Amino acid sequence: MDEAAAVRRAAREAVDDVDPDSFRDDIDAFVTDGSPVPGVLTLLAAAAADADPAAHTERAAAVQLIYDGLRLTRRLADDPPWTGAANAGTPDERDSTREQADIDILAADVLVARGFSLMADTEAATDAVGVVQSFGRTQTKRQAANDPPVDRELEADVLELALVAGATAGGATPRDPGTLARELVTDADAGLPTTEALFDPAASERIAAVTGGAGRPLNRND
Fold first, then answer.
1. How far apart are CA 125 and CA 108, in angstroms?
2. What is the number of structural domains in the chain?
3. What's the domain range around 190?
4. pLDDT digit string (tens) for 87-114?
5. What is the DSSP string of 9-58?
6. Within a domain: 20
7. Does a structural domain hold residue 220?
8. Which tens digits make up the pLDDT trace of 202-222?
């Protein structure tokens, strides 16, 4: 199973009815351009908890869409396209910049909303709400700071959500998923490990231990 491809396919299906087509294409391009690690980790946690990951791609897509929506929101907050350089250029250029900003804001809302819709009837629904609430608090603090630090709280919170969503898919109760989530967050620009790093034997063992399930970690040959 190609977990990354499965996550992206499920994410695309979740927004397949979005109109117009050009707007849906913008959403799809943004998701495709980002890291699929949140969704992949969800599937790996499900497998480690003895669930069939192929049966839980919607959960993985839910985590992925929530992350991508909040990631886009953070980007807009960090570099508001309606201020500063966005006010430079010709009137037509300024209008184009602001129009794209409006599209991005709407795209972020759609991504998070679709993620919540997929997650609504799962055991991780409350955790998903917590991720959004934590994100709001973090962004409020960052906006109030003169020199805000690089934000990696979102990545840590989303990876924790991925572990919870995956583990509960197999009926398991995750054990301290927050600690592993923060260990997986990197200092790289993306703030996330590579997909390949999740299949490292040590990482696989940690995922299996956190899920508390009886399943075995997946490897690239599964």
1. 19
2. 1
3. 3-211
4. 666 766 666 677 888 899 999 999 999 9
5. HHHHHHTTT-SSHHHHHHHHHHHHHS--HHHHHHHHHHHHTT--GGGGHH
6. yes
7. no
8. 999 999 999 975 544 555 555
